[in-house]
Amino acid sequence: MTTATAGGAGSAPPADKRPDTGTGTDRRPRGRVTGTRKAVAAAFLLPALVLLGSLVVYPIVYSVYRSFLDQSGTGFAGLDNYRALFTDETIRTAVKNNAIWVVFAPTVATALGLIFAVLTERIRWGTAFKLIVFMPMAISMLAAGIIFRLVYEQAPERGVANAVAVGVHDTFAESSGFPKAHPLPVHPLKAGGGGSFVTKETVRAGQPVNLPLVGVAPGKMPGDAEPAKAATASGDGITGTAWLDFTKGGGGKPNVVDPKELGLKGITVEAVKDGEVVATAQAGADGVFTLPASADGSLLRLPADNFREPYNGVDWLGPSLVTPGIIGSYVWMWAGFAMVLIAAGLAGLPRELLEAARVDGANEWQVFRRITVPMLAPVLAVVLVTLMINVLKIFDLVFIIAPGSSQDDANVLALQLYRSSFGTDADLGVGSAIAVLLLLLVIPVMLFNIRRIRKEGRR
Are β-strands 209-213 and 238-244 bridged in parallel, bridged antiparallel, or unpaired? Predict the structure, then answer.
């Protein structure tokens, strides 16, 4: 058996003569991957570091420093500014409202986004629906605030929300025909309690009764009301006329049916004896009504239902509903954002697992609750944390939607920061303390998000 000799044909070439095969066995020193030194790398990073320091680090440090100074900024205030965060009623309201925002707004927006994402997978026009739901994200907070300020207008003819509320209410509860109508002192009627009016004397058969009223706006009169007619006696019954005792353009006499005066069509008249209603009638288009003989010797009453104020909807921007109303506008904007992110996560779920569950007998609710939602938990956490950070900084919607009369009730920390720092009685010390409080509230959420991202990266 022969062996290769040094310099023979079978000998290996010297190490410095071997070609580089790319197998990683070449031990020759090489240059850095970037081909630059640390100083050059630092030079490239310097502009970013300068921007980060000037736009992020410096404002944070200065805000912390300023929060310990007094209103003028020349004297040391200690913890007085932070003490004001828990003793000032306005700031405490802002903290309470921020807690409401953090709990409800992200939860509702995420839940709606999850529902929309799941349902749009099963409808034919799912893409178009997603586009419509996501469109509010293209609108600025300013524009959305103006839109919902109009939506929540108290007047039903201008506010969409109250127009719907009034329409639904009037469908099931008929509104009053003659709000604010009332008699004059010279009329044969007086207040009967509870908003009703009764005759000053009992009525008798064969004696027509006059029931005049004033205070009905022309626009509130029935469109088919006719000129009032004086009632005539008929048999044993009680007849009378209910009319608007007002002549347009002037003239006319009180308690007298004049030619240009209109009947109160549809007004209800009750005959009352010993506190009991014995007969009821409604006036015709000319205001004439007729009661049976059982009404003889009774008092005539115009019940309060004739004069009930019309339903004007809900006071959406009042002290009790202004915060839920603004949260509703926020959800309208951000539910589309949640839906898109959740839909992207939903598209990555293994379909064979869902189908296997259905084959094993699970219904759609069980598949959704026990498989879809747990597998989407990381995506839901991303959406929820992102929205929580977002609502901690909410300012635009509250500032625009809430009217001045209820802005204190809708106050949040970001708005109070603006008011304390730039209001009529500005105190930059308190404003800086609020800014530090906001930072402290955001940090735990950010840390949770960072830990979650690192945990996902290790998988």
Answer: parallel
Q: Which domains does the chain show, CATH number per domain?
A: 88-157+316-426 (1.10.3720.10), 189-306 (no CATH)
Nearest to 402 by CA among 303, 310, 296, 319: 319
- What is the three-class DSSP state of 280? strand
- pLDDT tens by residue, 147-179: 999 999 988 888 999 999 888 887 776 666 788
Q: What is the pTM of this model?
A: 0.72
CA distance 441 to 389: 9
Residues in the chain: 459
Show Cβ contacts of residue 110 under 8 Å, excluding neighbours closer than 6 positions.
Answer: 338, 342, 380, 383, 384, 387
> Of 212, 206, 215, 205, whose CA–CA distance to 188 is shortest?
212
Position 12, amino acid: A
The arrangement of strands across the sheet holding 288-291 comes to: 209-213, 238-244, 288-291
How far is 216 from 214, CA to CA, in rounded Å? 6
What letter does residue 252 receive in the DSSP assignment? -
Report the distance separating Cα 312 and Cα 421, nearest Å. 38
- Round to whole Å and give the CA distance between 107 and 338: 10
Q: Following DSSP, what letter does each residue of 228-279 receive, concatenated?
A: -------TTSEEEEEEE---TTS---TTS--TTPBB-TT-EEEEEETTEEEE
401: Cα separation from own chain's centroid: 10
**What span, in angstroms and rounded, lies between the C-alpha atoms of 177 and 185?**
22
Taken in order 9, 10, 12, 18, the sign of the CA dihedral is: positive
Place of tokens 């736009």: 55
